[in-house]
Amino acid sequence: MIPIIVGAIMGGSALYGLVKGGKAVVDHRDASSTNDNARSLISRATRLVNEQREATNSVIEDYGSRKLRSFNGPVADFINTFGRLKNVEVANSPELEKLQVGDFTTQTLTELQKEYQLLMDSGLGLGAGLGSGAALAFGAYSGTMMFATASTGTAISALSGAAATNATLAWLGGGSLAAGGGGMALGGAVLGGIVAGPALAIFGHIVGNSAEAALANANSNLQQARTHYEEGERAALQLQSIQVVTRLANETFSKVTTQLRRSVHSLEKVIVAHGEDFSAFSQESREAVFRSVKYAQLVKAMIDTPILDESGALVLSTEKRIRDISDTAI
After folding, report:
1. DSSP assignment of 90-137, as one string?
2. Contacts of 205-212 spanning 24+ positions with Cβ under 8 A
3. I need a surface site. Which of 176, 194, 215, 253 has the fewest CB within 10 A?
4. Tell me: the pLDDT tens digits for 154-173?
């Protein structure tokens, strides 16, 4: 009787061992599959943010390059042509009264001339190139932020370094940050205070004798990966918002500078036909002067409108201001 009982116990133990062993195999397999899913989420999040980062970076750089071309083109032409006039009085102009984005003063022209001169002195004059870091800063910052730096003695041509002082710009451009990188986590943190999940380097081989622990760890990894992906989506949306506003700024700036170019061409014709003494101009000729001043004012307003603030966040009032300028440039 006893051998039978012992045999039954031994058989039960063997069966229990088999069940436990089978469950361990299943748990290990499930843990591996769960970790694969987590890795996939991390990969997708990284790809999502990087693709949007590159797209946003490209649009801001293009806008910065357009700003530079405007200084070397229509802005320079306006400053030179308008500077030829004598006895100029632009107060009470119907054209200037239409402006809704800021009152025109003689100080506006003085500032524009100063900014132009700073740009020329920096080595970014006619025919000069603009490095990617400088273009990025030139597109993201306002003229006040840019030229304040230049007026302290820092050459605008060195803005590739200045851009790196703003973590968002450095990250957008793909450059390393102060800590030698940081990737999506630091970039996400810069964009609106998102604190991305850890790098999740724990997704290595499943180690340990406890299959249950391995499965629990894998489930934890997956939850972290989901959080990481959600943060990546938010970062990508913020990048997309920056891209949309920058594209609007680029289109508006193009429209305004085209109008400035045309008005300066008309002003040149007036000077050829009637000379340089504004006080002797007919009302029609004076209107040509007023129009050129109006569009120079709008270009200056665009230059003074930043896309990002000093912390790297999108300036929320910028979109409305750009739309106001666009509506005025008719």
Report:
1. -TT-HHHHT--S----HHHHHHHHHHHHHHHHTT--TT----HHHHHH
2. 206/28, 206/31, 206/32, 206/35, 211/23, 211/24, 211/25, 211/27, 211/28, 211/31, 212/27
3. 176
4. 555 555 555 555 777 777 87
